[in-house]
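Narrative progress, year one. The postdoctoral researcher (J.K.) led the effort to move from monomer predictions toward full complexes, under supervision of the PI. The following entry was the first complex the group processed end to end, covering 408 residues in total.
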Amino acid sequence: MIKRTIYIGKPSYLKLKQKQLVVQEVETKLIKGTVPIEDIALLMLDHYQITISNQLLIQLQGNNVAVVSCDEHHLPFGMMLPLYGHSEYSERIKYQLVASEPLKKQLWKQTVEQKIANQEALLVLNNKVSEPLAEYKLTVKSGDTTNREGMAAQYYWKHLFNNFSRQRFGEAPNNLLNFGYAVLRSIVARALVSSGMLPVLGLFHKNKYNAYCLADDIMEPYRPFVDKLVYNYVNGFRDHFELTKQAKAHILTIATQDVLIDGVVRPLFVAVTTTTASLYKCFTGELRQIKYPELD
Amino acid sequence: MSVNRFSAYRIMWVFVFFDLPTETKRERKAASLFRKKLIADGFTMFQFSIYLRHCPSRENAKVHTKRVKRSLPKHGKVCILEITDKQFGNMELFHGIKEVDVPQPTQQLQLF
């Protein structure tokens, strides 16, 4: 089932009434809408004048909703998730904690391979030269010790957009990409929590300042889907790189993008939960391959 | 994602029609409790004593039907009806003799 994404970009009071999220306009006290909490997946708060009641927050967490708040640049800044989103939480974490180093390296190898494959598919889709990526994909080693990921990315960014360098604080469309990745990250982190895993403990990402290492690992093969959305947006509206409401609405459709996973076409939002469930099975030894989406 | 792909997930609408006795205080209380439970489950009023809910999939519709069944009042008549989004879209609605639009399916992405 595909759950809903709610974006709040105007001054509002958010409260709980009969298990519904109620959005009220601040000045007129007009009720602008109600949404059943159990239908929400992602609640994005993008305005300084949003007031939210604690009772509502607790209900949101009880339903495993990712609450994302945005900063003054309108980029997602913080994310709130429940401490545990699965009934077997303790058991599942045990498996994650004792995962061996070779296993993690294998999983990271699969992740990088699929990421490069998706990057390659996106280049092919836009009639760009993609041969080097095919070669990088075939030479990924366990744990990606030869950094094929970085080499592929360098080639990929150079050829996807003209005169573009991918940097967090770089020129547009970096801002659009950042927004998309942040949304994707919260979707992935939410799915990890609901599969009973710690998003802190990564396969490859180990930065001590990063609280979502595992989410950053697992989202890698999904990144090209964001790139595709941004690419189409930028191409559709030339010279229109600002992070407007329209741009955000376009990028927020990431949750409903079609992806091919495990032989079936599913919305990305559903596919992410398939991936995290298969990741858990890899930790327990039931599976040898993480299920990742394919871009086509 | 196109509308067609969404309907592959079989968007459903669940209707609840009810006629509940309101003669005594106890009956009124039971009736209002039932109505409140419907609202808490995400149903909205369509007409007096007719509530409906948008469900993104068939399985989800079953869940909500089951919940309504669990909260049924002791007396009175209740009817639960599940219809597909397509059938719902074919509904004709009138205000007086003026035709009005059928409510839109809930958007997956909602901007406030």
